[in-house]
Target: Transcriptional activator protein Anr
Amino acid sequence: MLAPIKIRDASLKQIRHACSNCSLRELCLPVGLSRDEMKQVDQLVTQGRPIRRGEYLYRAGQRFHSIYAVRLGFFKTSVISEDGREQVTGFHMNGELMGLDAISTTRHTCDAVALEDGEICELPFDDFESLARRIPALQHHLYRMMSREIVRDHGVMLLLGNMKAEERIAAFLLNLSERFEQRGYSHSSFHLRMTREEIGSYLGLKLETVSRTLSRFQEQGLVKVQNRLINLTDEAGLRQLVSSCVRD
Amino acid sequence: MLAPIKIRDASLKQIRHACSNCSLRELCLPVGLSRDEMKQVDQLVTQGRPIRRGEYLYRAGQRFHSIYAVRLGFFKTSVISEDGREQVTGFHMNGELMGLDAISTTRHTCDAVALEDGEICELPFDDFESLARRIPALQHHLYRMMSREIVRDHGVMLLLGNMKAEERIAAFLLNLSERFEQRGYSHSSFHLRMTREEIGSYLGLKLETVSRTLSRFQEQGLVKVQNRLINLTDEAGLRQLVSSCVRD
DNA sequence: CGAGGGGTTGACAAAAGTCAATTATGGTGG
DNA sequence: CCACCATAATTGACTTTTGTCAACCCCTCG
Model:
């Protein structure tokens, strides 16, 4: 989906200097800016702010000022229905944007909370917009990022609308695996940052179903599960489970 | 969601002149542009092209050049999985945009097909983007429209993830009702443009479940169903069903 | 007027949810 | 460092919801 990083070593150093977090640039910001443009972007992005596990970035209903880029950590966004039931709308990691949904109403429409300690960049949206007018690549990049979010959501709709519990969970694990790998972590062994209930909420399943399905996967030798530690022992098998469906 | 139309009669005439379809402007384009800006926007938007029922606007995989604004008619967008299962991602009417998902990959990610004869405006995206740089309100408006799409998708995720068949269908009918009303049609009596199967695909249900649920609603006096003609006879009752996804 | 697509309905099967009991786990304070 | 508590996770028995398969109707269109 994203342009791979193709930066010569020499210029890499420059970029590191201009923006202290490289993966942020790779994932959130366009490549191919001039040095001057990069400097302007960096001035816009406030330095990463540390966030504690359990801390809310924003809550539904709050006034919208900024979008947020995850620099480090693991976040979830969710909408809460009146009776308190939660629908998790996404899990967000390193280099992903949050808060795009709030642009339309100037109020946040969901909650964003850190599932582990992390670091966040805040991008004041008004400033972003006017800067985007002067830097076409930046403008285009935000359109792309929003479009990506729409595509992602369509993928989730497909999952929720068409897939059985096993397929959903297999797809979920593979998706996490891929995203961890993109960030240089192991694709076959990772730690879930969320509870079974949160997984269930995201996938439209009850926590018991999530638990049972993971157990079954383990019996079948597809994964090894130790609480939140996941080992994908048969990725091909998992892929086969979802192969009937489109993945993002 | 959308800013209501607050235009004095005098200027209304001007606008009608500048853009032959008023509801298009109301829904798709920002208000408050100068006459000159409006003229530029209108030059960008090609005149509405007639579209026949069954005709495809674009298909998944095709190269992306333009976004589309529905001027008249009723469209569905859907992704098809490899094994041929369809997930309808949305129904689109008068004044709504389609194709925003394609920006991220420069290829369309879903199919868009007309469910009845209609008329479509094509907006070449490159031109749109550069014009947006010169007209801040236009740039902002597209960000808003994309954000709206994300919010809408989150709503569907909530529906698919948390609601029972009855709740989904009630929510679906009320949503259609509202959108028809916004466009000046009856909110209590309307014609479904899609089959039970397409409704089911959108709502994550089988067509039999859709049919049965509508029959049950009719027995309960909530609606009157004559094939595709729907009469909402107890909107409050429907609304109660949806909000009683509060069941605890 | 007959074929075919869309729609309804019934009987049954499968999937996931609910309730409840039990077992880990991790964080905290003594 | 350990014991304890609250929270998270697992598992089983049973219920509810939805899907599946099949028969049938109805309407339209060629």
DSSP finds nine helices and eleven strands in chain B. Confidence is low (pLDDT under 50) at residues 1-22 of chain B. Chain B has two domains: 11-155, 163-243.
